[in-house]
Amino acid sequence: MNGAQALVHTLANCGVDVCFANPGTSEMHFVAALDIVGTIRPVLALFEGVATGAADGYARMAGKPAATLLHLGAGLGNGLANLHNARRAGVPMLNIVGDHATGHLQYDAPLTSDIVGIARPVSPWVYRSLTSAQLAHDGARAVAAAHAEGGQVATLIVPADTAWGDADGPALPINPPQPQAIAPDAQDRVVEALAGGHRTALLMRGRALHREGLEAAARIAAATGARLLCDTFAPRLDRGAGIPAVERIPYFAEMMTRFLADIDTLILVGARVPVPFFAYPDKPGWCLAPGCRVLHLAYPEQDSAAAVLALADRLPGGKSPLAPAPRPERPTGAFNVHSIGQAMGALLKDAAIICDDAATASGAILAGTANAAPHTHLALTGGAIGSGLPMAVGAAIACPDRKVVCISGDGSAMYTPQALWTIAREKLDVTVIIFANRSYRILQIELERVGAAPAGPMAHTMLDLSDPTIDFVGLALSMGVESARATTIDAFCDLFAGAMRRPGPYLIEVAI
Amino acid sequence: MNGAQALVHTLANCGVDVCFANPGTSEMHFVAALDIVGTIRPVLALFEGVATGAADGYARMAGKPAATLLHLGAGLGNGLANLHNARRAGVPMLNIVGDHATGHLQYDAPLTSDIVGIARPVSPWVYRSLTSAQLAHDGARAVAAAHAEGGQVATLIVPADTAWGDADGPALPINPPQPQAIAPDAQDRVVEALAGGHRTALLMRGRALHREGLEAAARIAAATGARLLCDTFAPRLDRGAGIPAVERIPYFAEMMTRFLADIDTLILVGARVPVPFFAYPDKPGWCLAPGCRVLHLAYPEQDSAAAVLALADRLPGGKSPLAPAPRPERPTGAFNVHSIGQAMGALLKDAAIICDDAATASGAILAGTANAAPHTHLALTGGAIGSGLPMAVGAAIACPDRKVVCISGDGSAMYTPQALWTIAREKLDVTVIIFANRSYRILQIELERVGAAPAGPMAHTMLDLSDPTIDFVGLALSMGVESARATTIDAFCDLFAGAMRRPGPYLIEVAI
Prior knowledge:
2 copies of one chain form a homodimer.
Chain A: H1 3-13, E1 18-22, H2 28-37, E2 41-44, H3 48-62, E3 67-71, H4 72-78, H5 80-89, E4 93-99, H6 115-119, E5 125-128, H7 132-147, E6 153-159, H8 160-164, H9 184-195, E7 200-204, H10 211-224, E8 227-230, E9 237-239, E10 247-248, H11 253-260, E11 265-269, E12 293-298, H12 304-314, H13 337-347, E13 352-357, H14 362-368, E14 375-378, H15 388-398, E15 404-409, H16 410-413, H17 419-425, E16 430-436, H18 441-449, H19 457-461, H20 472-478, E17 483-486, H21 489-501, E18 506-511
């Protein structure tokens, strides 16, 4: 048995069952070992950002790491933006990055680079394996590391000679560290604050935003009057009819400040203090009300669902005030992001997963789908656009029985359009909606907000995607994804309803 | 005047006249300043790897840096693979990377990352500007740094508040350090070696591979019998009818060993000792003949053209044996990489620039074009595929009077297909040829060579691009590039000849 075979066996034994891959020469032994083990599904990506974004989407839904397989520093570099998003999502992920054989590094061959250095900014755990005999054990350590800290990116660098050299056999799986229990005195302080008549809010993240956690949170809210909040970009949120709703913190700093103005006690449950994405001249960067007290019920690496469940059990039996609102009607008339949101609210398939990279269209879709059939929403956690299509790949592979809906801006989609090919190749049950406003709309807004406007024609061309317009229907078809364009709300409803009924890849370009 | 305006003025004064940009919120003041200065041409890329690859292609042809404009660590990350190629090409390049305002970093907002850490593996010079008053001077230092060491990647990180804060005005340009002169004793040793009846070869890189340098090298060869070599992947090589030819070192280790076997004195002229791309079990990683002596006439950061010119002047007047070979005939019959190479050799436009990301098709094209009309060849210096289309953008902007021909594998093209949109938007005179063999053909070869074969079906799917096939004609059309498919050599000749006659973007998909 060679090192690569021992490694792949070990990863399989540790629960890894998918590998999102874009391999090169130095990863050929790993690739060959996949057949020998047979239980890890290899999924080819044409670009590494698709592989890393897919592993993020997979982890958010499966709650465990997929492997990526990347070719040296350049391949890892191509995956960096979506690794940044994964780092911010706090998901477990395992990168396997091939490297030159140990003895070859001295020659500084053209593809040689500082792989550890490239990995470090996005991967808290990085290790370069040293011998084929040790590689399998390093793999077990890497999987355990991916599960640590509530989920993190772990990167194992595999020199080619550790892959082709001899190994004894697979290594034993390593039990990942269990999350630290919620401190009783932290809970006491929160109970006291909630009872004290304060204007309190719970800001939740992690498993607290899964259905069971939300139901517990709703009991807390009913018993105490606390507001329930989630971040602008929560990694995963269950929502829709019958699921207790949370308020989403707004994106822009001054809206965030107003939103948080009446809260004098903010209770963090797996979340951190909310901060705006960007600073602006003469606008506040700290948005909590003056004197707002911050309590930690659960830190990000703790189990936030367990925290809200335990807290709810300590409070008098508040009953969730939930009266499911009716789904929106199928819209007629105007064709814009609001009516499209309403259409999605009316027609969304039960248990769908929405992968959201829709930027300025996102708010209207979230509003329209608030009372849609129950579904799960995955947001752009790190702000590096180009995550939506790749996440859809991973979510669809993690949950083959659920419909995945990717909503993406036209600008966002063009960072990782190669994901469409993988969606077609794997026949994934993904409906893609491209909001083609022919611009980086968010930047047209931000240009004003940062005080750089008025700007001239050169600046405006940098925010404009209309010359030439991108034909997303043609783009999707060129990669094997069936596709159509909607220019009326009626046509959109028909296309979207058809896509919800029919499994498999489909793309709808919405010209708005 | 704000910091961004002072910076843009300074860059323009330092000779920067193009900016390949994919900006975000933190770069809006830089974007707005472009109109105020007016002499830097902004070129929008939909993906940062296009911007960095374009700056590489621009620098190879213009001999001076373009600026890129990138959005924080994630945007820089997306550009990393082509920055790796640029680092290996030794070209001057300037990255302007926006960052959060200094005071905002304390909040660790979602897009915050270790930008210096991400830049360092690809950028020998990295600096994070600290005040708006100093930003313009930092820009001048960055341009000088890009010119240093014979050309290198320099990265200036621009916090948003240094862009929007007050500045006095532009900074003075800084004279870049001049390359160190060739040491007389280095030249003496080389003259002695060349006269000594040794089996000598000159391995050249840099400006020595421009026409003037090659003509001097041919005089040296005529006078001494020395062989003239270039690297497998030279950043830039003038070649074709009437230009002295050099022998290209082969790609695979054992072929490289055979190729170098009869050389007992290797004279490096701006090059480093040649090494194979990858190591293989039981194959040599060091390919020089045993006992081969290595002399340095010019180090990579020196002027290799000056070195060969001075050397040629010291030798007895050898006359270049150049008798221009006739161009190949327009081929008929078989349709394969060899006949396509011949067709390109027959029909290539005078002074064309070939951007080569064609992997396994490259050798046949180089053979076919050896006696084509004089042209310039730009190779994949760092081995990170996905450089061809972006380089074509930059080369076309650097040389608007020359036809650019991008030859790319199908696998390679899918790393940075967004470059097609920029080619269409800027109406660049670029003809793209996609060699669609529906596979990562090089990996099918390498799988055998590294000893990982025989491999099973999972492994083979990782090397296969046939399911679904990518319709490159449709892909190009979707981004506004006129396009056609050739399935016979006659059709290819007609399409290619038409593309050579007609300026503007065009793509030919070659199904081989």
